[in-house]
Every structure is written in C-alpha cells, then in structure tokens.
Amino acid sequence: MQEQKPAAIIASTVPPFACGVGKLAIVLLTLLVYHSTFTAKADSCPTTKDEISTDRPDVTNSSVVVPAGSLQSENGVNLSARDGSRFVDGTNTRWRAGIANCLEFLVDVPTYFANVRGGEGSGFSDVAPALKWQISPIPGKVDLSAVFGVALPTGSASISGRGAQPYLQFPWSWELRNGWGLSGMLTEFIRPSDRTRLTTEATFVIEKKVTERASLFVEYVGDYPENGSPAQLLNSGGVYRLTPNQQVDFHVALGLNHNAPSYIVGVGYSVRFDELFSVKRSSASIAPRN
Questions:
Q1: Is 142 left (phi over 0), alpha (psi -120 to 50) or beta?
Q2: Closest CA to 117 of 93, 91, 95, 84
Q3: With 50 as the cut, is the pLDDT of residue 285 above it?
Q4: Are 97 and 71 spatial neighbours (Cβ–Cβ below 8 Å)?
C-alpha cells in the first residue's frame, strides 16, 4: 500500500526485528542466491492474463509484480484523525511499471496532506521511486518479493521528515483453501536525518475471497522505532474488481495505542494498462499463473 503508513506491526514479542538492516541485507543476499538457481520459474510471475493485484488498500503490498510491459496506476483518498487534528490526504498515487520478467519499477507520487482541523501544518509528501523483484514461488507455494526504494526530500519536512529515506521491504503471501489467504510484510525504514534512524514495520493480513470479484481483509500493522515506543494499528477493508484490470477499494483503520492515528477511512481506484511498451519475454513467461 502506497499511502503514508501511519503505523505497522506484528508483535513486540519478536525481538529480532531490532537487529535492523544488517539481517535484512543477509536475507536479501540469500534470496538472490536462491533465485539464481530457479530462473526457469519465470512463468510464476504475472502475465496480462492475470487479474489486477494492487498494493492497496491494506498497508501490506502485493507479493507479486505487475506484468512485463504493463503500467498500473493506484490511487486513493483518506480522512484521518490524530492528536486532535484531522487530515484529508490524496491522491496517494503509485505508478507501477513491469520493466522485465518478474521486475517492476514503481514510484510514489507526492500526496498532499491537508489539515482540516487542528494546529499541525499541511504539505506534500516525498516522491519515492523503487525497484521490486519477485522471488517466487518459494517452497510451500508462498509468493515473495523484495523491494528497495528511497523517499527523496522533495516534500514538506513537517509531513515526511528531512533528507533521503531509503527502505528495504519484503512482502509475502500464501494462498490457502476455500478462498482464504495469509500475507504480510517486513520493512526497514532508514532515516539518517532523524533521531530515530531505524524503524521496523511488520504487518500480518487474513484475507477471504467472498465472490469471484470481491474480497475482504483484516490487517494488524505496527511500527517499531529503534528508540521509542511502537505504534499499533488494526486495519480492515475490501476490494471489488470492476473488470480484470480495474479495482475499487475501501478501508477503515483504528489506532490501538496513543502513538497511532485515532482512525483512518479511505477509498481508492486502481487500473492497469497492458502491453504499453515492449519488453523481452522468455518463452516460459507466456503461461498464466495458476
């Protein structure tokens, strides 16, 4: 989910998160080695025959990339409350482009946060480009991706903070039976200009497909700063696919402690445009995902 992430979490009972970027880098290197021995599995990555899969409305991003040669636009508007202030933010736009098999370039366009009540200021968030690489399937039919991006200091410091802010991210998902699924994401945010330089974000989602076009989810999200108390959020919502390439969504989030927003309510619309540009495809990538 590309929206300004207010908080995220798995549980304070997971102390390894505090180990930070070093261990995440080791995990990424391990996945690189693993993937190099399974390049023939490029057919596991999405094609234009697959339905749209978005990074919204939950905080947890999709564990798969967009099809090679496709461009996907994801957008939304939120109303939130925190510390006596109320904000409306939009358009929370993320553009995702499939630049090769299992490889995606994405960019978060600056979102405007308007303070409609309270003393805090208004302003734009940073522009944040990133690369996403799908490393799946791994044993157990779990889809997994690795994302590396950086928020560039183009927005308001009161909204996004100061300086460049890199991040490393691992979204995953596991399809169960009868329309049920589990997913989650582990992210390490690096903010060199802030007092709290490292923040680990963890999410966990339970999802249920209720019809061929609609699904609902419940998500537990939390941020664990290197110095300070965590922020916890319970998020829920649903998506409805108007067509295989178009989706509308909604979500409602409630803060679980004083560090999180009191509430967030949002709606969104996403669309995918296929075969906009030519990319080299392997013969294995023609088959749709099962």
A1: beta
A2: 84
A3: no
A4: yes
User: Could you tell me the domains of the chain?
Assistant: 15-273 (2.40.160.40)
Residues 6+ apart with CB under 8 A from 245: 51, 52, 271, 272, 273, 274
Token readout for 169 is 């991210």
Question: Is-contact 47 65, C-beta < 8 A?
Answer: no
Residues 142-148 have a mean pLDDT of: 95
User: Is the separation of the CB atoms in 63 and 144 below 8 Å?
Assistant: yes
- How big, in percent rounded to 5, are the helix, strand and coil portions of the chain? 10, 50, 40
CA distance 79 to 88: 5
Q: What is the DSSP string of 74-95?
A: EEEEEEEEETTEEEEEEEEEEE
Residue 125 CB partners (closer than 8 Å, separation 6+): 4, 108, 110, 111, 112, 113, 151, 155, 156, 159, 160
Query: What is the spatial distance between Cα 71 and Cα 120, in angstroms, rounded to a whole number?
Result: 36
Number of alpha helices (DSSP H) and beta strands (DSSP E) in the chain: 2, 14
Q: Do 233 and 205 form a contact (C-beta atoms < 8 A)?
A: no
**Averaged pLDDT, 151-155:** 96
Q: How many residues does the chain have?
A: 290
Write down the pTM of the prediction. 0.84
Return d(Cα 253, Cα 234) in angstroms, integer. 5
- 135 vs 155: CA distance, rounded Å: 32
In 3D space, the residue among 198, 265, 227, 260 whose CA is nearest the CA of residue 8 turns out to be 260
The number of beta carbons lying within 10 Å of the beta carbon of residue 113 is 23
